[in-house]
Amino acid sequence: MADKVLGGGDEVEGLNLALGPADADELEAARVYFAAPCNFFYASQSLDQLPEPRGIELAFAGRSNVGKSSLVNAITGQNTLARASNTPGRTRQLNFFDLSGRLILVDMPGYGYAQAEKKVKEDWQGLMFNYLRGRPNLARVALLMDGRIEVKESDLAVMDLLDKAAVTFQIVMTKADGLKPGALARKTEELTALARKHAAGFPQILVTSARTGLGIPEARAAFAALAPIISQG
């Protein structure tokens, strides 16, 4: 899957990623970048509760139970940083995490959960969509999709929203360990083609498994390039 992984174009203490796979030095630089302390600092249930912008933000969006919290925990190496729930639709707020002033990670409520009470679902999905449309320091949305299931209408709606808002998104396939090699290759091609149909879509996707660690180093490299550490001297 290396040829399907994108890093970025900025420098992060020796990390200089072009359009293509990261090399060993770049992956190590990204590992060190995300090894910095990362702490929860804010939760918001409405737009008027959002924290003042304090750095570049990377938001994790996706359907309920797609693995957003698990991915945040995997890339930071902190198993209990973001709380994963076994109950779809339970997370109803934006949770903000500060990676030592380098990057702000935003764990978003899942969308597309049909069994949530209508008013509650409208409130938390409205919060999510309004955040995506209007956050000035939002650099990218990691749009998670479970590799084992088909793309849903709600996924397409979010991609259309991000196109209109001109907010770059990168598709991150999750739970890739649940696919056999042939199916994984086909799903990767499908999601790559989907991303390239959208003006705001990053042209290459990330293929990951929080359970096995597949693709986590490459995800770190791609995300670290959003907010590079500026070397002194």
From TrEMBL:
Please give the HAMAP family that the UniProt record associates with this protein: GTPase_EngB
Name of this protein: Probable GTP-binding protein EngB
Query: From the record, what ranges are coiled-coil?
Result: none
Q: Which family does it belong to?
A: Belongs to the TRAFAC class TrmE-Era-EngA-EngB-Septin-like GTPase superfamily. EngB GTPase family.
Q: Does the keyword Plastid apply?
A: no
Any one GO MF term held by the record is: metal ion binding
Look up the record and name the cofactor or cofactors this protein needs. Mg(2+)
BP-aspect Gene Ontology terms: division septum assembly
Q: Name one Pfam family in it.
A: MMR_HSR1
Task: Return the GO cellular component terms, semicolon-separated.
Answer: cytosol
What does this protein do, in the record's words?
A: Necessary for normal cell division and for the maintenance of normal septation.
Tell me the NCBIfam families matching this sequence.
GTPase_YsxC (TIGR03598)
Q: Does the keyword Cell cycle apply?
A: yes
In terms of InterPro entries, this protein maps to: G_ENGB_dom, GTP-bd, GTP-bd_ribosome_bio_YsxC, P-loop_NTPase
Q: Which organism is it from?
A: Acidisoma silvae
Gene name linked to the record: engB
Which top-rank group of organisms is this from?
A: Bacteria
- Which residue range or ranges hold the EngB-type G domain? 54-229
Q: Which Gene3D superfamilies match?
A: P-loop containing nucleotide triphosphate hydrolases
